[in-house]
Amino acid sequence: MREDSSPGLDEKHDASVGDRDYLKLCYLAVGDSIHTKRWLSFFKKRGHDVYLMTSVPGNIGGITEIDISLRPFPRTSAYKNLPKIKRILKEISPDILHSHYVTQYGWAGALANFHPFVLTGWGSDMFLEPYRRRLNKFLFGYTARKADLITTETERGRSAFQAAGVPKDKIELIHWGVDLELFRPGIDARSLRQELGLGDGPVVFSPRAMKALFNVETILRAFPRVLKEFPSAKLVLKGPRSQESKDSFCLEMERIAGELKIGGSIVFQEEVPYDKMPLYYSAADVVVSIPDSDSMPISVLEGIACGAVPVLSDLPSVREWFTPGVNAIFPRDKSPESLADSILTVLKNEPTRNSSREANYSLVREKADHAQWMLKMEGLYEGLVGRPSP
What we know:
By secondary structure, the protein is of the alpha/beta class. About 40% of the residues lie in helices and about 15% in strands. The protein has 15 helices and twelve strands. Helix 3 (about 100-110) crosses helix 5, helix 8 crosses helix 13 (about 335-350) and helix 11 (about 300-305) crosses helix 14. The radius of gyration is 22 Å and the shape is globular. The protein starts with about 25 loop residues before the first strand and ends in a 6-residue tail after the last helix. Mean pLDDT is about 90; it is low at about 1-20.
């Protein structure tokens, strides 16, 4: 990892070369997110010169990562080290600065006053964070209006930026997309079933983080009703990275599972390596994602690409792609009883499962191909710097 004090951040290429066919892309983003890793890795593989300024390094292969945290404080809010960010930008002299996540990294990008500046909204940074404090709302609008281009994956996200005063023609819908070579139907998950002790019964998988936002407690409290009708069913919850990194919320969820006397039917799985996620989705009959706020959940799209049937929160962004009773089931309310009914609807109804799988596989192939969306993004980058797309 290079710091800005290291000699020659730009030693890879001669910045004076005017006719180069690669772009020098500099990102402000959280480094350890799989979304960041996938996005940056795509453009690195395309031959572009990619830099990442972050306070949470991700050790992404082939990417020049620059730690902008304020030592000795890890995970420093990015905008608090603005002088360092500006120095790095001056030394790198990228073609484009692109901030992922409006809060913190977006703020930093806007305050750096570098152009062309691209901003990508993720979810809570558009729908929750601006309403937590008056300052956040001001910074959301300020950051959005400073951007030369904004990307979001939903019409709801577009509306949030338009409400902040951004013209519609500056906002592009760009989806994260699914790696259709990695996530696909027909993957043999018997080895994982054996490894996790899932048996031959139905499997319900919650691929979202072990956080209150994703209503994990509701999922747990719904499961006893599922077990009454499917005693061999198993619930797999994706948890923290390790036993040592469990927080109070994780421990409380384990306590609730014990209180409900369903601990033997629950798998609290530590963080799953990304390349192993297709096995989890393929082992699952149902994928559950029921946050109170969301953009388009990539984990759900990956799940349906592998054949899992989704049970989802009834949210505006979700309804852009999913229709209740057609390719997803929406609980009628936020209660555990309603969620249990929705899960049971899937498990009891084979025609529903089959029709949903067929519709969803067509959906991801037509609308969620990661490579196609990133190629579109590449064209937008080229347009910003006045070059024709490759």
